[in-house]
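Structure request: 1-aminocyclopropane-1-carboxylate oxidase homolog 1-like isoform X1, Herrania umbratica.
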Amino acid sequence: MVTAKSSNPDQFDRASELKAFDDTKAGVKGLVDAGITEVPRIFHQPPDKIQKTSVSGDTQFSIPVIDLEGVKKDPITRKEIVEKVGNGSRKWGFFQVVNHGIPESVLEEMKDGIRRFFEQDLEVKKQCYTRDYSKPVVYNSNFDLYTGLAVNWRDSFFSLMAPNPPKMEDLPAVCRDIMVDYSKQVQNLGYLLLELLSEALGLKPDHLKDMDCGRGLAMLCHCYPACPQPELALGISKHADNDFVTVLLQDHIGGLQVLHEDKWIDVPPTPGALVINIGDLLQLSPSLISNDVYKSVEHRVLANSVGPRVSVACFFSTSVMSRLYGPIKELLSEENPPKYRETTVRDYVTYSNGRGLDVAGTSPLLHFRL
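Returned structure:
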């Protein structure tokens, strides 16, 4: 059992504490359910990582909200939306979309499904607690539990939903139907976003889609229980996503922040909206792919005292793990030479995940820079 405070602070055995926490298979929620009033030391963030100065309510630093209404019907409207998506991806790497085609009832049921999963009896959840990511569903706390600087105050479950989705019976009974429905609708949105991003780069609409950038879809569902000392912990440490594009559904509690011009900017929950962010692979591709035209942006989630906060991150990548990705040739010139070497998605993700979140203090992209 993880204790809130060692009897002798000088005898803190981090490795043993991590293993003890992992062995409970109860996650952070288990600690909260046990009634702890102090955050265990393994969750304490280094002081330089925990600073929470942020900017909010300032129009100069507000995440763009893009209305997709009419994007498939009106060429003039589509051109305007393409420009907004391009600007948001270049300047921020983050934006929100509304009128995206996914009914609000589906969004609400997806959030409710996550809550149902985490509210299950522990003995039921333990059946899918694992660190083997080849399993159809992976439930655990912190994929980088043993490599991160500090344990993040969250539990998660993960599943690859495309192109080869799990069998229905392998998905959690309390949320399997909505997982399948939501993933299909998000994938349609993902294809549209890839079209808009392609057009904003001056490419044909199907360019990124034809590169398999949206063929693979991974769903990662988070629960951030209420934290008794949120000033000591983080929900998720600073990081950028190691995919092409991420579609995030968040609830009303908030806590998501992006690092913009050395300031932490709040991404306020907007009813019916989805948060879109550019991943490392799209930057690599001259982002890696976009060759730094688009930028992946570091972001984090604060611990909160009112939770549980829930969110669903859908990561668009590829199932063709051996395919080489690098700067798009059509975007290169003598004035704009390639900035990154080619790599496979498998090698990039393996390198990125192996470092743990915010451990090295630098982007994994630098490892692939020419």
